[in-house]
């Protein structure tokens, strides 16, 4: 049996590494008699981390009571590895604190856990890993706790040693092992059920040396949680294969009981994390197995920095909504500080599921949930390409290359490397290859072309996987029987893992890699193949449904795996591709694969997570009711005021009912007329009305007022009594408008009481009068339609309101428009005396909430400061004299906002404006204009 990732117990293992540390420190003599002295000296919580894990899991009593020789501590102790040291001082090597860098002589860290480099760097390497952004951010003691269902090593029964610890398979493990220069600790399932407590103890101890902490789940729980809910429900659903028919499931193991097992398993993961958690740790939860984990961890400690990353696709919300526990899982994930995906499509689907199924507000900037803005983003994974390129230079791989070249001499080799999973499109691949052979019989294909398929065994406890295996075997036999010759068979199919050296050699010598995933979160095999093809320049055939197609598409032959004839033709094209084209394709892919590494991926993710949490207080939404009296009193006392007022749902009258054909144009609520007039006529007050509506609607409503107007969310503005001008210097390309309009028309027709509005620079589909649930469902569909049309156009953005979808030019926001107006005020000398009062109030969408923070309102009293977002030379004289007493940011009718204050609705705004007007009335003014 073979496996791919580097052997963890080889020279570079923590065990060997630590031995070297001891040697470099002067051998065993330099090690304190009490190995615990080597533990973390600073943090009591981790000082006896292993002991604590064992003690609290109730499995290690015997081990812990025998301090002198852990290995002999139990009579039925498991023989884990005959190479292991007998000396108790050597028992601790995995716990020896070493720095997060690759310097094997360094012992600086006090975290009590070995660094990732011990795992990832071969011991012989003396190369210094430069300090990464990550290590700089986390500091010497900062740790990342990786929580994933699968650990990077699997505990496996062994006939002699009883237990061995081979590397685990799969992209998640490969990718995370590519991360360097950060102290990582893994929490996960050890790959096997271990009912015996003594075995659990030994395994815990052994895994701990490899910086892994096991979560022991018994067989029944694994069956229901992993084989059941994870792999029979979530996995197929997330890969667009739908949910299984309930009648096929044994009632006791139905979706309900599987979900209970799922939550129970998540709870056990959470408990284990909490045992090893220490303040400052970053907790990175991985994948669909652990969707409840962010919530459980935050319940334990709200200050934990928790991220969640999904390695699979997140399906369209239409698919996802079939899941009985859909809302519960989304809400649990949203407790994380950062939610990450491999691709924007997946992130977008997630956001629209939150909007349509939970009724939340949000877009790709974040989702408003639980009085916070949860960040959602795409972080496409990469690989550690150097690990492959270096391996190719080593003697072992070179030897294998020679061996394989001999074996396949005279034949073109097409390579497939996949877990034997239905998402990988095995049957489609075999059918396409069969079709290729049919069409190209002149090749005497059985001899000249071979499909070498490594089918890595996976999830064989799930019946669907066993069924797939037999279907695959049947098809392989058919093709081989049909096209085989006495000299050779066209398909070489191995139900095995391959060791890392063999895998590299195969990647290097084969002519074509054939990846036919029906859906795949990313697909790292395609990256690894490219990394190994520097000299061969083999061709990559890649399914358009693999996340990797978005990055490697330009250098690959992209296929729809369901189109068997297309894939067959692609095989022929790949085999016949001229050298020049192969080189061009390869160059593109190689640059991407070597530049965009797993390290980058992890750094980007963890840095964003760190930032999301450190900025959390700023992002958190804590509005309080606007103190109208105070706002009015301050107004009365100030000399140069700026009032920024939203229009819709702030100054408008309430439109209660929508009837088809009835004019629903918004109108200024008559109660505002008087106070607004007074405020606008006050020469020490500048009033700006900001709206998403078009210019003509604003003109109609505000013709009688001396105020500034902003239309179409900042695309245009108008000085009092002057002409409209655009805030954009160049005419924006709105070529997307036509296709968006068609989609909007289509949905307007099919959604009773919805309407759409085409403005000069934007389009809005509004469903606030439609049936709530139906409207949301339609909105989800509409977003998908838009994805197929205009969203790929980089110059447009989708802005989702609670009951609307708007497409506007990129970079247009209300905040930016107000920035422009402030620049104008300055140019017109309206700010000769500093602005000493600002009220910014409106029912603004999250996208436009930049209006509350523009420009630098954090200036101290009396400070003179340039406005943000202005050209320095233009704005040199802009002055504000603002502080928290004279700056009022206020949302209207929204629960969540970054504004400081809130008012419930229009009638409160009427009172406010009346009070302001009265406060500035001649008799009431402390500073006459
Ligand atoms: O742990 P298993 O159940 O044996 O499955 C192995 C892994 O399969 C999935 O991998 C995904 O992650 C890759 C890296 O991000 C990605 O390239 C690939 O497209 C995905 O399928 C699964 O998501 C992991 O949790 C499993 O460990
Ligand atoms: O015998 C093997 C063959 C491959 N791989 C690795 O498994 C990973 C597969 O990741 P991918 O993203 O392609 O798909 P996943 O299996 O995670 O769905 C790659 O890193 C391969 O190097 C493995 O561990 N053992």
TrEMBL record:
| InterPro entries referenced in this protein's UniProt entry, alphabetically | Glyco_trans_20, HAD-like_sf, HAD_sf, Trehalose_OtsA, Trehalose_PPase
Q: Which UniProt keywords apply?
A: Glycosyltransferase, Transferase
- The kind of enzyme this is, by top-level EC class, is transferase
Which residues lie in Polar residues bias regions? 106-126
Q: Name one GO biological process term.
A: trehalose biosynthetic process
List where Low complexity composition bias occurs.
61-75
- Stretch list, region Disordered: 61-126
SUPFAM superfamilies reported for this sequence: HAD-like, UDP-Glycosyltransferase/glycogen phosphorylase
Which Gene Ontology cellular-component terms appear in the entry? cytosol
The UniProt record lists the EC number as 2.4.1.15
> At the top level of its lineage, which domain of life is listed?
Eukaryota
Instruction: Please name the GO terms that the record assigns under molecular function.
Output: alpha,alpha-trehalose-phosphate synthase (UDP-forming) activity; trehalose-phosphatase activity
CDD domains per UniProt: GT20_TPS (cd03788)
Q: Does the keyword Glycosyltransferase apply?
A: yes
Question: What NCBIfam families is this protein classified in?
Answer: PRK14501.1, trehalose_OtsA
UniProt similarity note: In the C-terminal section; belongs to the trehalose phosphatase family. In the N-terminal section; belongs to the glycosyltransferase 20 family.
Q: What is this protein's record name?
A: alpha,alpha-trehalose-phosphate synthase (UDP-forming)
Its source organism is Triticum turgidum subsp. durum (Durum wheat)
């Amino acid at each position: 049996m073979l496996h791919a990732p580097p052997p963890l117990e080889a020279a570079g293992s923590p065990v060997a590494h630590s031995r070297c540390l001891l040697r470099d420190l002067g051998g065993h003599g330099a090690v304190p008699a009490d190995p615990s002295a080597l533990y973390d000296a600073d943090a009591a919580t981790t000082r006896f981390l292993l002991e604590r894990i064992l003690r609290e899991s109730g499995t290690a009593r015997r081990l812990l009571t025998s301090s002198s020789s852990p290995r002999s501590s139990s009579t039925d102790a498991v023989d884990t590895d005959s190479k292991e040291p007998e000396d108790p001082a050597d028992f601790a090597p995995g716990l020896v604190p070493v720095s997060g860098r690759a310097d094997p002589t360094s012992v600086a860290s006090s975290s009590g856990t070995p660094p990732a480099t011990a795992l990832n760097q071969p011991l012989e390497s003396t190369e210094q890993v430069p300090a990464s952004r990550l290590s700089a951010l986390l500091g010497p003691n900062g740790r990342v706790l990786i929580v994933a269902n699968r650990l990077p090593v699997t505990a496996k029964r062994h006939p002699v040693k009883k237990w061995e610890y081979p590397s685990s398979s799969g992209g998640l493990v490969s990718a995370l092992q590519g991360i360097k220069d950060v102290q990582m600790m893994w929490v996960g399932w050890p790959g096997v059920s271990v009912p015996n407590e003594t075995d659990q103890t030994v395994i815990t101890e052994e895994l701990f040396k490899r910086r892994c902490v096991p979560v022991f789940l018994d067989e029944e729980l694994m069956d229901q949680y992993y084989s059941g809910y994870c792999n029979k429900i979530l996995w197929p659903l997330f890969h667009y294969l739908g949910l299984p028919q309930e009648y096929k499931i044994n009632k006791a193991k139905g979706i309900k009981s599987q979900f209970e097992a799922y939550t129970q398993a998540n709870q056990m993961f959470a408990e284990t994390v909490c045992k090893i958690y220490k303040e400052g740790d970053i907790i990175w939860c991985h994948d669909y197995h652990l969707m409840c984990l962010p919530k459980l961890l935050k319940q334990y400690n709200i200050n934990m920095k928790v991220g969640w990353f999904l390695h699979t696709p997140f399906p369209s919300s239409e698919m996802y909504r079939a899941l009985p526990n859909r809302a519960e899982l989304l809400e649990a994930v949203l407790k994380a500080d950062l939610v990450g995906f491999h691709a924007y499509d997946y992130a977008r689907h997630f956001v629209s599921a939150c909007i349509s199924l939970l009724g939340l507000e949000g877009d790709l900037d974040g989702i408003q949930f639980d009085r916070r803005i949860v960040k959602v983003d795409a972080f496409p994974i990469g690989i550690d390409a150097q690990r492959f390129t270096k391996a190719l230079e080593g003697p072992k791989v070179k030897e294998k290359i020679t061996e394989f070249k001999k074996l396949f001499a005279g034949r073109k080799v097409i390579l497939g490397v996949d877990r034997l999973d239905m998402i990988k499109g095995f049957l489609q691949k075999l059918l396409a290859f069969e079709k290729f052979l049919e069409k190209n019989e002149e090749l005497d294909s059985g001899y000249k072309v071979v499909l070498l398929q490594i089918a890595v065994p996976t999830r064989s406890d799930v019946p669907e996987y066993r069924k797939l295996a037999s279907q695959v075997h049947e098809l392989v036999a058919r093709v081989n029987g049909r096209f085989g010759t006495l000299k050779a068979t066209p398909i070489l199919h191995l139900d095995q893992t391959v060791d890392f050296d063999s895998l590299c050699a195969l990647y290097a010598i084969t002519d074509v890699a054939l990846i036919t995933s029906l859906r795949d979160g990313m697909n790292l095999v395609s990256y690894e193949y490219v990394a190994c093809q520097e000299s061969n320049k083999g061709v990559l055939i890649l399914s358009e449904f693999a996340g990797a197609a978005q990055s490697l598409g330009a250098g690959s032959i992209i296929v729809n795996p369901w189109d068997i004839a297309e894939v067959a033709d692609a095989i022929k094209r790949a085999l016949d591709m001229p050298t020049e084209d192969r080189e061009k394709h390869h160059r593109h892919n190689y640059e991407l694969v070597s530049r965009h590494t797993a390290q980058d991926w992890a750094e980007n993710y963890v840095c964003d997570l760190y930032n999301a949490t450190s900025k959390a207080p700023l992002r958190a939404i804590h509005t309080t009711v606007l103190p109208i009296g105070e706002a009015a009193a301050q107004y009365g006392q100030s000399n140069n005021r700026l009032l920024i007022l939203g229009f819709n749902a702030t100054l408008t009258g309430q439109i209660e009912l929508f009837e088809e054909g009835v004019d629903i144009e918004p109108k200024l609520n008559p109660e505002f007329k008087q106070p607004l007039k007074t405020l606008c006529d006050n020469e020490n007050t500048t009033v700006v009305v900001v709206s998403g509506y078009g210019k003509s609607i604003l003109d109609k409503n505000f013709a009688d007022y001396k105020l500034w107007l902003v239309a179409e969310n900042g695309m245009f503005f108008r000085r009092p009594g002057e002409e409209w001008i655009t805030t954009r210097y160049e005419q924006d390309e709105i070529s997307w408008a036509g296709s968006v309009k068609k989609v909007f028309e289509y949905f307007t027709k099919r959604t009773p009481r919805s309407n759409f509005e085409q403005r000069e620079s934007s389009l809005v589909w509004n469903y606030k009068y439609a049936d709530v649930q139906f409207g949301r469902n339609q909105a989800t569909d509409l977003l998908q339609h838009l994805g197929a049309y205009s969203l790929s156009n980089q110059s447009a953005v989708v802005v989702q309101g609670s009951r609307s979808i708007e497409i506007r030019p990129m970079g247009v926001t209300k905040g930016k428009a107000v920035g422009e107006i402030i620049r104008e005020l300055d140019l017109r000398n309206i700010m000769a005396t500093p602005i000493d009062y600002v009220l910014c109030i409106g029912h603004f969408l999250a996208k436009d909430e930049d209006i509350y923070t523009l420009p630098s309102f954090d200036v101290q009293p009396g400070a003179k400061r340039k406005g943000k977002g202005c050209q320095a030379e233009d704005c040199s004289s802009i002055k504000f004299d603002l502080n928290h007493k004279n700056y009022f940011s206020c949302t209207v009718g929204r629960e969540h906002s970054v504004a400081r204050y809130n008012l419930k609705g229009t009638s409160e705004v009427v009172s406010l404006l009346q009070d302001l007007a009265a406060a500035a009335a001649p008799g009431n003014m402390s500073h006459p204009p």
